[in-house]
Amino acid sequence: MSEHRTIPTERLFWAVLESKPLGPRPLVGGRRYGERLGYLFEESLPVPIDEIHAVYAETEDGRTIACGMEREMLRTEAHGCLTLTPETPPEFVGPNVEVANLNLLQGEFEPERVRAARSNVVLAAGLLLALGLLAGGLGMVRRTAHWAAEQRATDGSIAQVYRAVLPPDPETKLPPALRLTTELRRLRQTESPDSIDLGARDASLAMAGMLASWPGEVHARTDTLTASPTSLAVTVVAPDAESAEALIAAIAPPPDGWRKTQPAMTNRTDGVEVRLSFTREEQR
Hints:
This protein has helices at 31-42, 71-77, 112-165, 176-190, 198-212, 241-250; strands at residues 4-7, 13-17, 52-58, 64-70, 83-86, 221-228, 231-238, 258-260, 264-268, 271-280. By secondary structure, the protein is α+β, with helices and mostly antiparallel strands. It starts with a strand and ends with a strand. It has 2 domains: 4-109, 2-Layer Sandwich (Nucleotidyltransferase, domain 5), CATH 3.30.420.380; 151-280, no CATH class.
C-alpha cells in the first residue's frame, strides 16, 4: 500500500467559504480561526461539524476551500499512509487549487512518523540556535576580555608615568591623578620670578600638561622619561602606527615658554616607538 494516497472527490464534503470577514489567518494560535471556519463549513454539511474532520486551503483570489470527511471513515482510510489528498478538486471549486494543500492527515490524524520527523526538525533548529547563541556569547566574552586587558595595560602605562614624575610619598593616600593635580596647583600658587628653582617648576608644569592630555584609550608602554629645567622627553612603545599617531595627536600644546619638537616614530619588533619632547625657549 502506498504511503501517499489519494481519495475520490465524491467521497469528500466540499464548500467555498467567504472567510474575508474573519480577517487574515494568524501565523500562530490558529485553532480558534479553524473553529470559526468550521462553523461556516457546517452550514453546507448534512451532518454536524463535530463528525467531520475538515482541512482548509486559501486560494490566490482570497477564497477559502473547505474539504472534509467523516471521522470514522477517515480512520479506516488513513491506516498505513502518510498523506491522504483528494484526487482532483470539484468543478465548482475551480482548477487553481493545490490538492497537496488539502492533505486530510493533519491535526489529530497526523501520522506518528510525520509528527516525530517534525519534532526532530524543531529540535535540530533549536540546537542550531543554541549553538549560534553560545558562539556569539563566547565571542563577546573574548572581546570583553581583550578590551579589559587593553585597559589594564593602559592603566599600567599611565601609572608608570605617574611614578616617574611624582616623588615617592608613603604617607599620602591620594591617588596619583589627584596628587598630580595638587602638585600642579601648589606650583602655580608658589610660582615667582624670584624663585631659584623657576626652571624646575616650569618643567613640572610642562610635564603636568603633557600627562593631563595623555589619552587613556591608547595603549602604550613607557620606556623612558626624562625632565630637566630646559627639556622634557618621553619615549613610549605603541602597539601599532595608528595608536602611535593617536597618542601624538592627543598631546596638548606645551605652556608658554616651551616648544613642542617634531615627534619621532620608529618601527620596532614589539611595536612603534614614539619620542615626544618639549624644549624650553630661550628668554629674550
